[in-house]
Amino acid sequence: MSLGEFDLIARHFTRPARRSPLGVGDDCALIAPAPGMQLAVSSDMLVEGRHFLSTVAPERLGHKALAVNLSDLAACGAKPLAYTLALALPRADDTFLAGLARGLHALADRHDLDLVGGDTTAGPLNLCLTIFGEVPTGAALLRSGARPGDELWVSHPLGEDEPGWLGDARLALEVFRGTPGLRVPGEAFDHLRLAMECPEPRVALGLALRGVASSAIDVSDGLLGDLQHVLRRSGPDGRPLGVVLDADALPRSPLMRAQTAALQHECLLAGGDDYELLFTAAPADHGAVRAAGQRSATGVRCIGRITAESGTTVHDRHGHRVATPWASFDHFRS
């Protein structure tokens, strides 16, 4: 059966709205934050061949498209409210759309999130979501709050058998690329692929860190690259702050620990697509950070400290300098 534009919206993406007076189908969505709240808004686009492989299951693609947007709200300490979906499709394939919608709706339901509008068109496969959250006025986590002496933290799964450990998404990509020397048993690859295709947004941790973390960002383009945004935004008079980072403190999965030290460092520090939270907090708030991790059922690990002197120093547990030759990911340079 041939699906038209409005047929596919009605069949797969129209749901009862809880926070929007209109829901899907009008010229604009209406979203009303609670009194004393500010709207937090973010957009992310996923393009086939750039952000995901053509072999990804539609359900996982739907999950990831929403997860990367939820991760931005998490980094801001915002509670999710609603989102819009702009979707370009090479053809209106009902089976593909059903799977995509299942992935979107399942994650949206977990976060009590409404789909309130968007657009559809014919074209190369492309998903662009805009997400809306709310945060108390003045309480948003920002990139610009780090201070010299702050501890640097990163989130991680609680169990070693859980997917999504730092660097595992990059390790899965290296398997797809056929990188020589990888030690990944066949039965373990599905676990790595889950990390790349189904990231877990740390929304509960972001909420728990309000009033505790001094700055925050999600790890999407690689830990070192994303950290530079915090250091530049937080520095005085346009001069970035610095960081001393312990490479051996970085949380990693058993599969990652089986790789060479060089590959581990590249995946952990420059891999990207992790969507863990990277954040800073004053040493006096060390216990409060631990408590936030416990309340949100999320692992947190202190991996370094912020310095007043610009520059990034990475060392191992023996104090030996770790080379970091990788450039930050850039869509027009990578």
Shape field? globular
- In terms of DSSP E residues, the strand content is 15-25%
**Can you count the beta strands?**
10
Query: Number of helix segments?
Result: 10
How much helical structure, as a percent, in the residues?
Answer: 25-40%
Average predicted confidence as pLDDT: 89
Q: What is the fourth-level CATH superfamily of the largest domain? A: PurM-like C-terminal domain
CATH architecture of the largest domain: Alpha-Beta Complex
Contiguous runs where pLDDT drops below 50 for at least 5 residues: none
How would you write the strand order of the largest sheet? 6-8-5-9-7-10
Computed Rg: 20 Å
Q: Which secondary-structure class do the elements indicate? A: alpha+beta
The major sheet is characterized as:
6 strands, mixed
CATH class of the largest domain: Alpha Beta
| CATH fold name of the largest domain | Phosphoribosyl-aminoimidazole Synthetase, Chain A, domain 2
Distance between the termini: 41 Å
Tally of separate domains:
2
User: Helix and strand succession?
Assistant: HEHEHEEEHHHEHEHHEHEE
Enzyme class: transferase
Function: Catalyzes the ATP-dependent phosphorylation of thiamine-monophosphate (TMP) to form thiamine-pyrophosphate (TPP), the active form of vitamin B1.
EC number: 2.7.4.16
Pfam families: AIRS
